[in-house]
Specification:
Helices cover about 35% and strands about 20% of the residues. By secondary structure, the protein is an alpha/beta fold. The chain has one domain: 3-Layer(aba) Sandwich (Rossmann fold). Strands 5-4-3-6-7-9-8 form a seven-stranded mixed β-sheet. The longest helix has 21 residues. The protein is globular, with a radius of gyration of 18 Å. Bound molecules: S-adenosylmethionine. The site of S-adenosylmethionine has 17 residues, from helix 2 and strand 4.
């Protein structure tokens, strides 16, 4: 058994300071030199880990992968809204996200505390603000300090932290909404994945919601793995799940989009061609016997 670390070594030390996600500390964290995977395993305050080496290796790999992606023009092209196929997928996801969030929070997000895992430049905050979320009630965490810095300058009233989602410096049962968009499929270590799931369950209030958007298949990307519904159910056995299968396979959408949006629309009606799940998971209002997660 080993221990895993607070998000940035030395900054967030558990216990009484676990909830002090002060903006000053966050900015300092973002400005620090990027720690290696190993640096995340030096702090003695985080949850127990059974595979310390595996977790450290995966965090090191994730840092490398996302550092490369940040400067990749191919990635920029793939995620450009100038491609109508990608824009179609993005808009469809937004619409269904709004539908699910309003189901969970019929009054909007005005008084909701929200946390986004793998927040990158803070795009998710913009979506949530449209439903009334106040930036001061928003926390975002991302492994990459440059992304956190960009998010902090775009949304100076929100709270962003450079760190790993498996060690959140937040109190138990302190947020009503956690979101993750395409973070979990990036994680290849089963132990790191288990730790992130345990953290989501720990910080969510009873009756709180976890909005999940991720792929169930991603055969062209060896740095990611799809996560199917059976696995998601195993991760959160006691949570209620409201599932939507969405997103026309991105390479297909990008290929067909510039030629015929009508064809994109038709292809999107074929379920097997939709590669992602958008899922609203709801934590039981009463603690279930044992943990909410595996
Ligand atoms: C595929 S991107 C998605 C970004 C954003 N959620 C979106 O939908 O546009 C995954 C993000 O997760 C971050 N990430 C990867 N591993 C992480 C970890 N262990 N903890 C926190 N963030 C992580 C990456 O740096 C990257 O910004």
């Amino acid at each position: 058994m080993g221990v895993v670390p607070a998000a940035i070594p030395g900054d967030f030390s558990g216990g009484q300071t676990r909830n002090r996600w002060a903006k000053a500390s966050i900015c300092n964290a973002a400005q620090q030199a990027a720690p290696t995977g190993d640096a995340y395993l030096t702090n003695e305050t985080g949850p127990d880990v059974t595979d310390v080496d595996g977790v450290a290796r995966d965090i090191g790999r994730l840092r490398r992968v996302y550092a490369e992606r940040s400067v990749s023009s191919a990635v920029r092209r793939k995620t450009s809204l100038l491609n109508p196929g990608h824009a179609y997928n993005t808009e469809q996801r937004r619409l269904i996200e709004v539908e699910l969030l309003l189901k969970a929070f019929p009054q909007g997000l005005r008084d909701v505390m929200a946390l986004d895992l793998g927040c990158a430049g803070g795009g998710q905050l913009r979506e949530l603000m449209a439903l009334g979320l106040k930036p001061d009630n928003f926390w975002g965490i991302d492994l990459m300090p440059d992304r956190v810095e960009a998010a902090t300058s775009a949304f100076p009233d929100a709270h962003f932290l450079a760190g790993s989602a498996h060690a959140l410096p937040m109190e138990d049962a302190s947020v009503e909404l956690v979101t993750q968009f395409m973070l979990m499929s990036s994680i290849l270590s089963p132990e790191l994945s288990r730790l992130v799931v345990a953290e989501v369950d720990r910080v969510l209030k009873p009756g709180g919601h976890f909005l999940w958007y991720d792929c169930w298949t991603n055969p062209l990307n060896t740095e990611a793995k799809g996560i199917g519904l059976r696995t998601l159910r195993r991760m959160f056995p006691h949570y209620r799940m409201d599932v939507r299968k969405i997103t026309l396979a991105p390479p297909l959408a990008r290929l067909v989009g510039p030629k015929s949006m009508q064809l994109v629309h038709l292809l999107n009606r074929i379920p097997i061609l939709r590669t992602h799940y958008l899922v609203l998971l709801t934590k039981p209002a009463q603690a279930a016997a044992g943990s909410g997660t595996t």
